[in-house]
Amino acid sequence: MILNHRFDGPPDAPVVVLGPSLGTTLGLWEPQLPALTSTWRVLRYDLPCHGGSRAASGFTRDLTVDDLAGGVLALLDRHGVEAAAYAGVSLGGAVGTALALRAPDRIASLVLCCTSARFGTADSWRERAALVRAEGTEPLIEATRGRWFTPGFPDAERYLDMLRGADPEGYAACCDALAVFDVRDRLGEVRAPTLVIAGADDPATPPSHAEVLAEGIPETELLVVPGAAHLATVERPDVATPAITEHLTTRWRTA
Ligand SMILES: O=C(O)CC1=CCC(=O)O1
User: Fold this and answer.
1) Nearest residue CA, atom 10 of ligand 1?
2) Which atom of ligand 1 lies nearest, measured to the CA of 230?
3) Quick check: CB of 32 below 6 Å from ligand 1?
4) 5-250, which class in CATH?
5) Half-sphere exposure of 232 (CA within 13 A, CB side)
6) What is the atom index within ligand 1 of the atom nearest the CA of 148?
7) Closest ligand 1 atom to Cα of 89
8) Is 40 in the pocket of ligand 1 (CB under 6 A)?
9) Is 204 in the pocket of ligand 1 (CB under 6 A)?
10) CB-ligand 1 contact for 20 (6 Å cutoff)
11) Strands 41-45 and 5-8
12) Which pLDDT does position 51 carry in this prediction?
């Protein structure tokens, strides 16, 4: 699987990989880019059939989060990156957990934003996948607005346009991947120093999901961001960005 991706920042700096959430693109991380690129070589990627990954090769209907982690490892291999820090939002965070389990020697530090060890029920994801395969992403827009942002967030349309632009089959395949993702009994195996971030008003992955991650992963810190829903890094970059940069700067560990 070849994922659309781009690098920003100094070519010789340590690499941090940034993973997007379901229905968004690598543009999700724009609010953090200026702070991160001062110190890091930032590698952002798009999920299959999202953003610039519309023509991703090797894409199948039975996509799993582990496949996505394999796609990220393929990017690291392609660019000769032995170890990297990783930060991901929601599905992008699940990819980070899968990476930390699959390739512990290559993930030096982890930030899990608004994510979970298990996202709701398999049936709810299968239903959403079926709806999107039948009608596209437009029927999701208003409910998604309410999950992603607290009421009145002024920049919501910019991010909802990413969802409007996602290819329905790619979005549905990511739903299928979320339906079978469950690493609750493997959290104790994660070795990377981990920052867990939750939006205080996130209805999709509420702080109780973050607490499961923070209690299960051995070396964690937990930050609950006030005044933020699911896309807390977008809604409150003033709180999330300094916490992320501090964690990445001070908690890098190689094997
Ligand atoms: O339903 C949503 O949009 C929230 C979400 C769950 C997984 C993900 O990446 O986003």
Assistant:
1) 22
2) 4
3) no
4) alpha beta
5) 34
6) 3
7) 9
8) no
9) yes
10) no
11) antiparallel
12) 84
* Interatomic CA distance for residues 26 and 6, integer angstroms: 9
Q: Which residues contact 199 (CB under 8 A, 6 or more apart)?
A: 114, 207, 224, 225, 228, 229, 230, 231, 232, 235, 236
Whole-model pTM over 0.80:
yes
Alpha helices, H only, the chain: 33-37, 65-78, 91-102, 122-135, 141-148, 156-165, 168-179, 207-216, 232-235, 237-250
- Measured in Å, residue 203 CA sits from the centre of ligand 1 at 10
Helices 91-102 and 168-179: crossing angle, nearest 10°? 50
Listed by start position, the domains of the chain span: 5-250
Q: Please report the pLDDT score of residue 61 as a whole number.
A: 67
Q: Two tokens at 43?
A: 């590698």
Confirm or reject: Cβ of 90 under 6 Å from ligand 1: yes
Identity at 50, one-letter amino acid code: H
Q: Which numbered atom of ligand 1 lies nearest the CA of 178?
A: 7
Q: How far is the CA of 88 from the centre of ligand 1 (A)?
A: 12
Per-residue pLDDT of the chain (255 residues), as tens digits, is 889 999 999 999 999 999 999 999 999 999 999 999 999 999 999 998 888 876 544 555 689 999 999 999 999 999 999 999 999 999 999 999 999 999 999 999 999 999 999 999 999 999 999 999 999 999 999 999 999 999 999 999 999 999 999 999 999 999 999 999 999 999 999 999 999 999 999 999 999 999 999 999 999 999 999 999 999 999 999 999 999 999 999 998 865
